[in-house]
Amino acid sequence: MIEPIEPVEPEAAPHAHKDPEGAKIGMWLFLFTEMLLFGGLFLLYSAYRSRYPKEFHEGGQELNSVIGVANTFVLLTSSLAVALSITAIQKGNRRLSMILVGITVALGLVFLINKGFEWSHEFHVGMYPGSPGLAERPNGLQLFYGLYFTMTGLHGLHVIAGMSVLFVMLVYLANDKIRKDDFIKLENSGLYWHLVDVIWIFLLPLFYLAA
């Protein structure tokens, strides 16, 4: 007598490995390397500032402090928005989280537009590295503008990178890949955006409020 064959149940699909604590530690290590990068530039600024205090003060007076302060409020508001977006997804409110991430990206764009207007004016008046007009100014002022364009330009690239990452998070939210029980990607993206804001808070007094 042939015994009946028992049906074989398909094996359960393996669950994706998730390690939110490890992901967060990895993000903090990455942010540490970013802080080392800007920290070196801040030390370089301090060395030249101590050597050419008069020229650095003069350079700070020539920058548009109104735009600098306005951009500070723009970034601070964007940091609040991304923090609230994380709180919203933790409470299961995906739609509100998407709106807040969208606001953050939009404010990042406002920051870049303001910076674009500022840079275009400085190029128009010939105050940029390598320009004939700046070449006639004292060495300290040339160093000031060299550091200004280098550090604010590098910061601008970080703003663009942060906006790109947050846009991806917006797509993830729309596709339900970030949920109430799985939001570490959005949280790490928020940490990066906060770093971008903190760096600008240091750049503001160094250049726009130089006294």
Could you tell me the number of beta strands? 0
CATH superfamily, by name, is Cytochrome c oxidase, subunit III, four-helix bundle
Which parts are unreliable, with pLDDT below 50 for 5 consecutive residues or more? 8-14
Kindly, what is the distance between the CA atoms of the first and last residues, rounded to a whole number of angstroms? 99 Å
CATH topology: Four Helix Bundle (Hemerythrin (Met), subunit A)
Shape, principal axes of CA atoms: elongated
Task: Note the beta-strand portion.
Answer: under 5%
Count of DSSP-assigned helices: 7
Number of domains: 1
Taking all residues together, what is the mean pLDDT?
Answer: 89
Structural class: mainly alpha
Alpha carbon gyration radius = 24 Å
The appropriate CATH architecture is Up-down Bundle
Series of H and E elements:
HHHHHHH
Q: Sheet bearing the most strands, described?
A: none
What share of residues is helical? over 70%
Descriptive report:
With 211 residues, this protein is mainly alpha-helical. It has one domain: Four Helix Bundle (Hemerythrin (Met), subunit A). It is 78% helix and 0% strand. The protein has seven helices and no strands. Helix 3 packs antiparallel against helix 7 (184-208). Mean pLDDT is 89; it is low at 8-14.
Task: Present the secondary structure layout.
Layout: H1 20-51, H2 53-62, H3 65-90, H4 94-124, H5 132-135, H6 139-174, H7 184-208
Helix pairs in contact: 1-6, 1-7, 2-6, 3-4, 3-7, 4-6, 6-7
